[in-house]
């Protein structure tokens, strides 16, 4: 799928995909595998929020029948459900069931390691579709620093949903994926559960400037915890 910004659209080809009764965007894209190529125009707001209603593709696990045309017309305006509402209404048993049968991670890996990384994700979780977003990581000082003295292309690999492997174990599986990413000069997006040890975290993220700043401001070490203490899994329990 490719696209360009335009100021006008051909008559009859505007697709307001963000309206409550429209198909989920990822299902709409999937339909072209059978229908063939086509040209359509998406309003910019609809494009920016193309994955909002379906929470990327996680909504299919929350409301399996949610893309049914009848549901969309009658109740599509309720989607997506508020995360705060889901948390408020879930019991401890449901929370544990969710944590033991769900995997949400974004890992940033060098472009030349994309193939092995996809093999790793397939072996460990088999969650599809997969979010792939290439980006350029500048060679500049900081916690997210590419290897060497040159800018380097990376790819954000995002997997969100229920794993389709028989032996999925959230902690062990995540640890194996983290190990692969760490050994291949990658990075973990820290909104998700991280089971890295403090030493592994420092191996993944360059702390030179961070430590230097904290040393220059001694009261900082007393007032604020390190980044690791804010984002590791135990800090979020």
From TrEMBL:
<keyword id="KW-0560">Oxidoreductase</keyword>
<dbReference type="GO" id="GO:0050660">
    <property type="term" value="F:flavin adenine dinucleotide binding"/>
</dbReference>
<keyword id="KW-0285">Flavoprotein</keyword>
<dbReference type="InterPro" id="IPR040165">
    <property type="entry name" value="Diminuto-like"/>
</dbReference>
<keyword id="KW-0274">FAD</keyword>
<dbReference type="GO" id="GO:0000246">
    <property type="term" value="F:Delta24(24-1) sterol reductase activity"/>
</dbReference>
<dbReference type="InterPro" id="IPR016164">
    <property type="entry name" value="FAD-linked_Oxase-like_C"/>
</dbReference>
<dbReference type="GO" id="GO:0005737">
    <property type="term" value="C:cytoplasm"/>
</dbReference>
<dbReference type="GO" id="GO:0008202">
    <property type="term" value="P:steroid metabolic process"/>
</dbReference>
<protein>
    <submittedName>
        <fullName>Delta(24)-sterol reductase-like</fullName>
    </submittedName>
</protein>
<dbReference type="GO" id="GO:0016020">
    <property type="term" value="C:membrane"/>
</dbReference>
């Amino acid at each position: 799928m490719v696209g360009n910004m335009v100021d006008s659209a051909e008559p009859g080809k505007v697709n307001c995909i963000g309206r409550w009764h429209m198909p989920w965007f990822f299902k709409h894209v999937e339909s072209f595998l059978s229908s063939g190529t086509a040209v359509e125009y998406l309003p910019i707001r609809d494009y920016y929020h193309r994955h909002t209603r379906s929470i990327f593709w996680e909504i299919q696990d929350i409301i399996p029948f949610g893309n049914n045309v009848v549901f969309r017309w009658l109740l599509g305006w309720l989607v997506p459900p508020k995360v705060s509402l889901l948390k408020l209404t879930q019991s401890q048993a449901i929370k544990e069931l969710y944590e033991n049968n769900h995997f949400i991670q974004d890992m940033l890996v060098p472009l030349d390691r994309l193939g092995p990384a996809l093999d790793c994700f397939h072996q460990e979780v088999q969650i599809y579709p997969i979010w792939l977003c290439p980006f350029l990581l500048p060679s500049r000082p900081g916690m997210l620093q590419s290897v060497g003295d040159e800018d380097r292309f990376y790819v954000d690999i995002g997997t969100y949903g229920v794993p389709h492997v028989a032996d999925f174990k959230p902690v062990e599986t995540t640890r194996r994926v983290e190990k692969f990413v760490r050994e291949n000069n990658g990075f973990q997006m820290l909104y998700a559960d991280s089971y890295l040890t403090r030493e592994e975290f420092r191996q993944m993220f360059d702390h030179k400037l961070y430590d230097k700043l904290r040393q220059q401001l001694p009261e900082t070490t007393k007032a604020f915890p390190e980044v690791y203490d804010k984002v590791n899994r135990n800090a979020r329990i």
